[in-house]
Amino acid sequence: MQQCAHCKTAYQGGKFCGNCGKPFEPLENGETFTTELPSTINEQATSPAMSEQSHFSSQQHRQVITATPAVVNTDNAQRPSGKFIESTKDYFEYLKVVCKEPTNAFREGMDDNYSKARNTFLLFLLFSVLTVHLATQKITDMFGFFGFGFDVSFMTVLFPVLIVSLLAITIVCATMFLLLKIRNPDPPSFREVSGRFVTFLTIPMVLLAVTCLFLLLGLGSLIPFTNALILFGLASSIPFTLYSLHHEKKLGLDPFIHTMLTYLILFLLLRVVVNQFISSMTNMFMPF
Q: What is the pTM assigned to this prediction?
């Protein structure tokens, strides 16, 4: 049977095809009849769904790829500053606890408290250097009034004060550890001894910061009081370190704070008595 070369419809007679209306041209021999309509329908039926699915998956993949670096970059950008602020807040909370109860502030086996005590140690060294530097400047300025003043740089004070402070604190901690090791068969570790001792240096460290402030503001009359408390705090840190290793519980006011307040009252009374004695002796020998 002959077929139309245009639409592959069977020949129905006449000069024109009864299906497409074009002049009838017979299909050449050797060509096979293939119907394109079903394939077209399948492509139209499947292509939109597959393309839509592939488009959705590719779009979702692009969103995941583009979103992941943004989250990582944000965390990397905010993590250092947020961590520093959080660490600063934690340290100030630690300072409040230590200034209130220095005897019980440090606990054995708590790495967090040991890291905070290490920060206290660094601040103690820093304020020690600043206090010595500012005091040296005040003294050299006094010589300047007589015409032979001189200047002392910060680096000149830095290394001697650091070396002396490091050696003194290391020797004190090592001596206490050796004494405890000799007397006690199960002594505390050197980490705990040094951590407790530096914890008691928190109040002298705060007093050093106040002394620096007084030196900057020119309040020289208040510096003797802070210096007296600093010296007493350094001296009493040794016995109270040994005390805290054997007395974990307390009642009432912290023993370290109690002792420092007692010393401050005695210092004030002694200062008043000395001033009265000096003024009376001055009036006695210089009546006019």
A: 0.64
